[in-house]
Each structure stands twice: as structure tokens, then as C-alpha cells.
Amino acid sequence: MVSSSEYHAALHDSIYQAQQHLLGLQDPDGFWVGELVVDATLCADYITFMHWAQEVDPDLQAKCVGHILESQLPCGGWNIYAGGPAELNATVKSYFALKLAGFSAADPRLERARAVVLTRGGLERANTYARLYFALLGQFSWEAVPTIPCEFLLAPSWLPVHMHAVSSWTRAMIVPLAIINHFRPTRQLPPEMGIAELYVDPTAPPKFEAKGLHGFFLVIDRFLKTCERRGWKPFRQLGLRRAEAWMLERIGDGCSGLAAIFPAMLNSLIALRALGYPADHPVYRKAEADLRELFVEDERGFRIQPCFSPVWDTAITALALARSGMSAADESLDRATRWLAEREVRIPGDWTARNPGPEPSGWCFEFNNPYYPDTDDTAMVLIALKTCGYNDEDTGLYDRALRWLLSFQCRDGGWAAFDKDITNPLLENVPFADHNAILDPSCCDLTARTLEVLAEFNYAPADPVVRRAVRFLRRHQE
Questions:
Q1: DSSP secondary structure letter of residue 142
Q2: Helix (H) and strand (E) counts for the chain?
Q3: CA distance 273 to 65
Q4: Which residues of 205-243 are buried (b: 16+ CB within 10 A; e: fewer)?
Q5: Cα–Cα distance, 332 to 30 (Å, whole number)
């Protein structure tokens, strides 16, 4: 039987070993960053991009193919999260990438994948973003791709549908897509590289299901397409210039690519080429280099990350080390807190459109994504800095960051991720909203983490901010 002293000795030894393991992973600059593992669609999308750009790197394509094949499920499809079932869009994208890489439709692996696609409704059921990639290579009619007009950037804020009525990740996706939608830079493929065999009914044009308000927005989409065909686009050039300037600002110096996340970054490369930027243009070269930073290759093979997570990883690791007994004066924790403090965002980002009051502050998830600090990382960083004993006497960091975070409390008492009160359910019916992330609603986990911050800074339960947040959590208990 293990004695109490032996148990405690083993426990402390385990904690010490865990601490040493984490310290061994710390970068010399003070941060930690783990790998974000996602599905095979990133490699599939990059193969598609290389063929669209007509700049295929055979070695890189082979590495992407290897990752795609390793990720195929026994049923023949591909999923979008570990342990999940086959998903239509992931399966179609992966199938198309393999066809582009030279695989035959008769290959047993593609035959199994094709069966999965057809039993799930075929290529006709692909979502907006998948349709656009297929349209770029002539596999989908542009008439069946929802119109994303550049004039969207010019819409006034009093309209129900405008630039800052949608979530930050939606903005980062649709601005380059609006540019692409204008130019429609289509490359044609030889039939053997196409995916016509994935249609359940190749003779019927793909359509979106028109139900309720979604049908109303589809009528608007058809109207926009009619205007496009007839050349009636009086504000198009202004919208294009606005979209280009918006995108360039967010992929320039100080930014790790558009929104610092793979889909938006890849879309920006296509949009830049559509706008006429050559491959050797400095802006394009920077955007491409930022994207390639996401490539990972080691003894486990090749894969692509969606983004980096150093701010979150550093904050949660420093917090774990401090709470597990490591002294706040430890040199490793000191380097971590200094690194975090230096990452504070001090420029007015996209959030100012909905929340113009506070002095800029906050932290983003990635290395450099200054237009998109978020409440989640900001809360975690504040908890870590406070727990690790960071001294802000000369900087006013705590007061500034707290005011910034508190200013994001939404009308319902909760906190959302990047903006406040982006909750109009009407927008869930627009045709390009089928990625299910067009809104940025208040979340229980973000609200609870903010309450943890307020507790660390001695806010009382009777404080109106706290009471509203608690009421929000109680309303949403599951």
C-alpha cells in the first residue's frame, strides 16, 4: 500500500517532470507554440491553387497527395475533425485534388470516395466556398456560385447586410472572394482531370434550396447576376478599389497574411493574381511567403497548419507553470510574460466599427494579426500576466486592456470573440452564409473566462458588469 508521503512525493515528481517538459519546449524568445492539426482540405486546396495558378511544384504536390491519402477514411471519404464521419465538401475537395494530381477515376481509392459523394447528394450539394474553387477550374458554373459583389464593401451601416454586420472571419473570406467573383479567372481542364462524375445528375444545373428567407436572398442573388450579365455595375470599380485597398492593408507589413489564417490567405493570393499582381511582385511574394510559413514537414510527413497559436499557447502554458508552483521570478516565466506584454495590440482594428470607444488594446491568437485581437486571448493573457506577477506600473497595461475587454460586453450580457452584437439572424439566410459562421454571438466560455479575469482583478459579484454576465450564463445553461 502506498503511503501518503510516497503519494505526495510521486505527485510532486510528476509535476516537476511536466514543468521541465514544458520548459524544454519554450522558444528562446519566450513563447510557446504548438501545432494546430486539421483535416486534409488544406492540402487539397493548395493542390487546386497550384493548378489554377499553373505553377505546379511536383515535389510539393506529391507531399500534399501523401497527406490526403493518409487521411482517407475506411469508408472512402474524408472528415473535418479527428474521429468524425465523412463530410461532403472535404471529400469532394480531396477527390478533386487527387484527380488534378493525375489519379484516375478508376483508382479504387477514388471509386470509394465517389460513392461517398454520390450517396450524400453529389457535387450539387457542395457549399459556397467549395463551389468557387471548382468554378475557378471549370468544374462548376459561376451561375451556381453565390454572387459576392464588391459593392458589399460600400454598403452603409444602416442596411441589414453590410461589411461590419458579419463576423470578422467572414469579412476576411469574402473580401478576396468578391474580387475573384468579379474577374472569374477560370482555367479549363482536360476532361480526364475533371470531376463531372461526381454529379448525381450532370444534365441538371446545380441550385441552392430556396426556403423561407433564404429564398428571398436567392431572388436578390439572381437579380445581382442579371445586373452582372447586362453590365450594370455603376459602383463596381469603386468597390473593387475599396476591396483591394482593404486586403492590401491587412497583408502588408506587421501582418502575417490576411487574418493570419490559411483560407483567407489562400484566397488573397488568388485575388492578387486576378487583380494583375505578378508572382514576383513584392506584395504577392510576401503573401505567398506568409502562407508557406504554415507548411509543416517532419518525421511524420507533410501537412499544412491553418494558423499559428503562440499567444494562446504562451498564456496558458505560463499560467499552468505558475499555478503548479513555479516561482513568478523564474527566468522562463519572466521571458514569457515580457513576450506577452510586447504582443499587446495598440492599433485600431476592424473592431472599432462596432466598438469605437476604447483605447486600442487586446491580444490576437497569432504572431501578427493586429487587425483582429480577440476577447478570448485577451482574457487568457490577462489571467496569465496577473498570476505570474507581471508589473505594469510604467505601462498601464492592465487598466488599458481591462477597459478594452469590458467594452466588448454585448447587449445580452455575454462576450463574443472579435466584435460585439453581430447577431442578426437574418444574415444566416444569405447564400454565402452556408459556412455557418457568418455571425459572432456571445459564448458561454468567453463570458466565463472574462468573469475569471474580473475575479482576478477583484471585481465584486454585485458589480453590474458581473451581474449581467452571470445572468447570461444562467440563461444559457445546458
A1: G
A2: 17, 2
A3: 25
A4: ebebeeeeebeebbeebeebeebbeeeebeebeebbebb
A5: 7
pLDDT one-digit tens code per residue, 349-397: 999 999 999 999 999 999 999 999 999 999 999 999 999 999 998 899 9
- Residue 363 DSSP symbol: B
The pLDDT tens digits for 119-159 are: 999 999 998 889 999 999 999 999 888 888 999 899 999 98
> Cβ(382)–Cβ(450) under 8 Å?
no
Q: What is the pLDDT of residue 225?
A: 80
Return all residues near 423 (Cβ < 8 A) that are at least 6 apart.
410, 412, 439, 440, 441, 442
> How many C-beta neighbours within 10 Å does residue 284 have?
18
Read off the pLDDT of residues 260-307 as tens digits, 9 standing for 90 and up. 999 999 999 999 999 999 999 999 999 999 999 999 999 999 999 999
C-alpha cell of residue 295 = 507548411
CA dihedral 76, 80, 81, 82 (to 10 degrees): 20
Dihedrals phi, psi of 440, to nearest 5 degrees: -135, 75
CB-hemisphere CA count at 13 Å for 472? 24
Question: What pTM was computed for the model?
Answer: 0.94
266, three cell numbers: 489562400
Q: Give the integer Cα–Cα distance in Å for 371 and 168.
A: 10
List, by residue number, the catalytic residues.
Answer: 376
Distance of alpha carbon 301 from alpha carbon 206, whole angstroms: 37
CA distance 407 to 416: 11
Residues 6+ apart with CB under 8 A from 342: none
The DSSP call for residue 296 is E
Burial class (CB in 10 A: 0-12, 13-18, 19+), 21: exposed
Q: Is the dihedral of CA 444, 158, 401, 412 positive or negative?
A: negative
Of all helices (H) and strands (E), which one includes residue 240?
helix 236-251
Give me 382's grid cell.
490577462
Of the ranges 42-51, 86-95, 200-209, 346-355, which one carries the lowest mean pLDDT score? 200-209
